[in-house]
């Protein structure tokens, strides 16, 4: 490493696998941060400024025809989930999926993932790819990574985001998966959502959960067992601009969330050739622990008390999972899981 003008530059000579790991991380960040805008602008450009407008119009007709597929189980591609590039992405951190109990494929599941982090990278690696062996660890279980509906409504990314098995996180979409006659389906929900990303800072263990009961409602309504998951290291991948409640930064972020429907954190990680700033995540281990499933009895119309009881049980199980495993990971031994 070379330091110049206060900037720590990466060494020029590094092993090839390190370059490929960086490439994989760069590819994910591009898809998450830039691809939506570029894809939309590309389609508009082809329609209005080229003689190939008819191709774009044909595609837009296809998009309209295929509009509800993300709410009907999506359209996953095995080749994409097993792509060798994702193994390099896994090794970039590295990321590891830890199994504590079996998941019986005779049941459906709601897997609640915490924390969201800035981009939910751990959730994608573990449940959107086979890089950490989710199908081998939990045979017979088909994970569906639930993401914001707006992302699946945009041209090009509509089809691209379904490749790893993503579906929209709407009620209709979740119910379609959990009502399927085939068992062994698992809806992976980042419960804190994009709003929780505003709390994602290195060294923090904040989980937006106090008033989040929608996932409990879905579990009760369909008798899907509830699985707590905590990802140690997810919040350590990026440094976020200080944004306490009431600050000007947070007011701007809250306004943007109300306007667009999702939060926008102001953050930085590292660059391709430096360690101080950029959009790449820091190389910090992500250790994701999958807890024991909580049996849930089907209640077609759960009452408020039913929701509160299951939510309380879930909160206790998640905290117990955190306390049991935090001693295994550096920087967490003295931490406490805080619900907000």
Automatic annotation (TrEMBL):
Gene this protein is translated from: LOC100376175
UniProt organism field: Saccoglossus kowalevskii
EC nos: 2.3.1.-
Entry similarity comment: Belongs to the diacylglycerol acyltransferase family.
Keywords of this entry: Acyltransferase, Endoplasmic reticulum, Glycerol metabolism, Lipid biosynthesis, Lipid metabolism, Membrane, Transferase, Transmembrane, Transmembrane helix
Pathway the protein takes part in: Lipid metabolism; Glycerolipid metabolism; triacylglycerol biosynthesis
Alphabetized InterPro entries for the sequence: DAGAT (IPR007130)
Compartments it resides in: Endoplasmic reticulum membrane
Domain of life of the source: Eukaryota
Transmembrane segments annotated in the record for this chain: 23-45
Protein name: Acyltransferase
Membrane topology listed for this record: Multi-pass membrane protein
Coiled-coil features, chain-numbered ranges: none
């Amino acid at each position: 490493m070379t330091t110049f003008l206060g900037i720590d530059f990466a060494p020029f000579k590094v092993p090839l696998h390190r370059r490929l790991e960086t490439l994989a991380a760069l590819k994910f960040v591009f898809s998450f941060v830039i691809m939506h805008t570029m894809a939309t602008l590309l389609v508009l450009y082809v329609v209005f400024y080229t003689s190939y407008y008819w191709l774009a119009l044909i595609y837009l007709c296809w998009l309209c025809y295929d509009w509800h597929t993300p709410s009907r189980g999506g359209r996953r591609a095995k080749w994409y989930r097993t792509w060798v590039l994702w193994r390099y992405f896994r090794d970039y951190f590295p990321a590891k999926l830890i199994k504590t109990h079996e998941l019986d494929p005779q049941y459906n599941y709601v897997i609640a993932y915490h924390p969201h982090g800035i981009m939910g990278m751990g959730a994608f690696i573990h449940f959107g790819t086979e890089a950490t062996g989710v199908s081998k660890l939990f045979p017979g279980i088909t994970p569906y990574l639930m993401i914001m509906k707006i992302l699946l409504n945009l041209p090009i990314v509509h089809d691209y985001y379904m490749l790893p098995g993503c579906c929209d996180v709407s009620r209709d979409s979740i119910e379609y998966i959990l009502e399927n006659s085939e068992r062994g389906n698992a809806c992976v929900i980042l419960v804190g959502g994009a709003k929780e990303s505003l709390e994602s800072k290195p060294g923090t263990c904040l989980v937006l959960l106090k008033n989040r009961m929608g996932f409990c409602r879905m579990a009760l309504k369909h008798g899907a067992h509830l699985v707590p998951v905590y990802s140690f290291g997810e919040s350590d991948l990026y440094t976020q601009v200080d944004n306490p409640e009431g600050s000007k930064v947070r007011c701007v972020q809250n306004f943007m969330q109300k306007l667009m429907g999702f939060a926008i954190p102001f953050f930085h990680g590292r660059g391709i050739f430096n360690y101080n700033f950029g959009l790449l995540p820091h190389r910090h281990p992500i250790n994701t622990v999958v807890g024991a499933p909580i049996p849930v009895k089907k209640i077609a119309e759960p009452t408020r008390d039913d929701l509160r009881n299951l939510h309380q049980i879930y909160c206790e199980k998640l905290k117990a999972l955190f306390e049991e495993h935090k001693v295994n990971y550096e920087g967490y031994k003295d931490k406490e899981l805080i619900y907000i």
